[in-house]
Amino acid sequence: MARYNNVTPRFIKYAMLVSLAFILIIASNLVNNITTFTQNDNEQQFAEVSTLQTSIGQQARFSLSDGSKVKLNTNSLVKVSFSKKMRLLTLIKGEASFDVTKDKSRPFMVRVGKNSFTALGTIFNIEKKSNKDIELVVTEGRVLISESYQPIDQLVKQQTRLTTDRLPGVVIASGEIATIENSAYTANKRMSFEQIQRVLAWQQGMLVFNGQPLDEALTEVSRYTTIKFEIIDSKLTQTKVSGYFKANDIDGLLESLKNNFNVQFEKVNNNIIRLSLSNKKNH
What we know:
Number of strands: 18
C-alpha cells in the first residue's frame, strides 16, 4: 500500500501534465483552424449586401458605401455584394447607369448573364434587353467586357495584377457603344454626343426617337407603363417616329400621334390601347 500511495501522486501529477499538454495542443489547433477560417471567411464574406430595385415607370438614384452612384431605369433590379477585395454588382433585369469611384485594390464588376463588365475608372450604362442581349454605353473612362464564368477571385487577380493591354476580353472606350447578342460580343462603334444623349435620355425622364418605326417606339414606351399597344392597321408599322416624349406621358404621345400621323386610338381597357389609321385626314 505504501508503494501504491507513493506512486499514485506522481502518476496523477504526470497524467495531469500530459492531459494539460494534450488539451493545449488541441486548443492550439482549434485556435489555428479558427483563425485561418476567420481570415478566409473575411476575405470572401461580403461586407455590404443590398438590393436596388425600381417598379414599372419608376426611376431612382442610389449611393453605395464606396461613393459610387447607381441610377436605375424603369423595372430594374441590381444586387450589390461588396467585400474587402472586390465590388460585385449583378444586373438581374432592366437598365442601370454606374458612376464608379476609383479603387484599384477593389475592382468594380457588373455581371449580366454570361458577361462581366469591369470598370476601369468610368461612367457607363448597361441595358439588359433580354437574357442574352445586352447594350453597353461608356461615357467616361473604359469598361472591360469579359465572360463571367471565371471564379470571382481569379477575376479580381486579373484586374489588380495585369496591365490593361493584357486583360482578357474587349475594352470599350468612352464615347463607344457595344452590343452583345446571344451572350456573345458582336461589335462596338463610336457615337456622337447627340447619339449618346438620345440613348441616355431616360436619365432625364425622357424618350427620344429619331426615325424609329412606330412599333419599335411603342415597345420602348411600354417599358415605362403597364399599358400595351395593339396596332390594327399594318401600314402604321411603317410610320417613322421622331421627337422628345416624357417617358410616362401616354396621353401626350397619343395626341402627338393623332395630330402628326393621323392615328386614332381606342382604349380597350385600362391596360390595352388599340391604334389604327383614321379615316379623317388632316388639312
